[in-house]
Specification:
alpha+beta, six-stranded antiparallel sheet, two-stranded antiparallel sheet, globular
Length: 411
């Protein structure tokens, strides 16, 4: 049974079929690809001493009217002038979520303007943005405490210290692509996952943390791999490539344990091991609602997460303007069905090598070969993005530089 995606946000859910219908409606909005978005996250540092802690009050002062309510309950939480929304993560990382744009060129230009506005606000308080996927100077330390983050820490602490490292020390780059037409969804879903390990390897920036080498090319992804696989493992794998994306995601979401249960008080800790399917079956005193299901989905963190569009979550934060390069790569690989199909074929042999990508980066020969081939495909697709000459040249140089690095490692 498929329910309308327009179900009221507080509709009570009493069976898995209704929950599955709601998930399909909100998580997979299909149609011709038209929009691209980006979410950029950075660690934030004192300009004079990057190892010095930056507290919540200093962030609130610097961000001013753009402060999220998590650090200033009275803030208007105004968007940046070009539409970017500012959030602050548990360890004080600052994130801009762009407004999606109909062209990559428009997205880059608007986001760069928002970054400049954010940078100026931070600079006025002696703060600067980091340029890597893991805080290279400071150990994990909470800056923002909310009931959600406290419950999250409680759950992740059961798995060891990786959860705190992820919450308080990591910074990622997320690229958002439309799910595509219904007949193309399975291919785009598979390709978004399959190209993950080689692109993670090509764009890894998180080899240092808390003042020393980590032994990982991406310690950020290493942290994700070490916590609660029921909510962080990939939904798609090469072992089951023909599985319907909607069905696979529905099973993943319903089978994942609750990270937290919202309430009026400060303690949102969820009963250990209770899944959303268990909640539907009566495991908690009240039945869940559609709003509870949507909130539960927000606590799942696979490398590719469907949110109506495909949110690609596996890339490390990049230094300076380098964020444009992986954006152009992914936009190019997904611009035309033929290119997406070829990218999937290139990446399929290494599509399950997430751990090797995080550990070795391009030092893994198979990943380096796949990355070089994907970057060559992206270069061929780059003219189709119709970027302004300067941005085209800048992204082209960045792609070529990484392709050369991958080819050298492969040889």
């Amino acid at each position: 049974m498929v329910m309308s995606p327009e179900l009221d946000r507080v509709t009570v859910l009493r069976d898995q079929a209704t929950a599955a219908g709601h998930l399909a409606g909100i998580c997979f909005k299909t149609g011709p690809p038209m929009l691209t978005g980006v979410e950029l996250e950075w660690t934030v540092h004192d300009a004079a001493d990057p190892a010095r802690p930056v507290d919540r009050e200093r962030l609130r002062r610097a961000l001013g009217r753009h402060s999220p309510v998590t650090i200033d309950p009275g803030s208007p939480a105004q968007r940046l002038r070009h539409g970017g929304a500012v959030t602050v993560e548990p360890g004080g990382q600052v994130e801009i979520s762009s407004a999606p744009r109909p062209s990559v060129a428009a997205l880059i230009q608007a986001t760069e303007a928002d970054i400049a506005e954010l940078t100026a606000a931070l600079d006025a308080d002696g703060l600067v943005l980091g340029g890597t996927g893991m805080d290279p100077w400071r150990a994990p330390r909470p800056v923002v405490e909310t009931p959600r983050y406290q419950a999250m820490r409680c759950v992740f602490d059961r798995q060891g210290p990786a959860g705190r490292a992820m919450m308080y020390s990591t910074a990622g780059l997320q690229i958002c692509l439309d799910a595509g037409e219904p007949e193309r969804l399975a291919q785009r879903w598979a390709a978004a996952h399959a190209v993950g390990p080689p692109l993670l390897a090509a764009f890894a920036t998180a080899s240092r943390h808390a003042g020393r080498p980590t032994g990982w090319a991406s310690a950020r992804m290493a942290a994700w791999l070490a916590i609660d696989p029921t909510r962080t493992r990939p939904v798609w794998s090469p072992d089951g490539p023909d599985r319907d994306p909607v069905a696979a995601w529905t099973d993943y979401a319903l089978d994942a344990p609750l990270l937290c249960v919202r309430g009026d008080g400060p303690d949102w800790t969820a009963p250990t091991g209770v899944t959303f399917a268990d909640w539907l079956a009566g495991a908690l005193p009240r039945p869940p609602t559609t709003d509870d299901l949507e909130y539960h989905v927000s606590t799942l963190f696979p490398p590719v997460r469907p949110r109506g569009y495909l949110e690609i979550r596996y890339l490390d934060a990049q230094p300076g303007r380098e964020w444009m390069v992986p954006l152009a790569v992914l936009a190019g690989l997904f611009a035309e069905p033929a290119t997406t199909r070829e990218a999937l074929a290139v990446a399929a042999p290494v599509a399950d090598r997430w751990h090797a990508a995080a550990r070795h980066g391009l030092a893994d020969a198979a990943l380096a070969a796949a990355a070089a081939a994907l970057l060559e495909l992206a270069l061929a697709a780059l003219p189709g993005l119709d970027l302004p000459a300067g941005i085209h040249e800048e992204t082209s140089r960045g792609i070529r530089r990484r392709r050369v690095a991958a080819e050298r490692r492969h040889q």
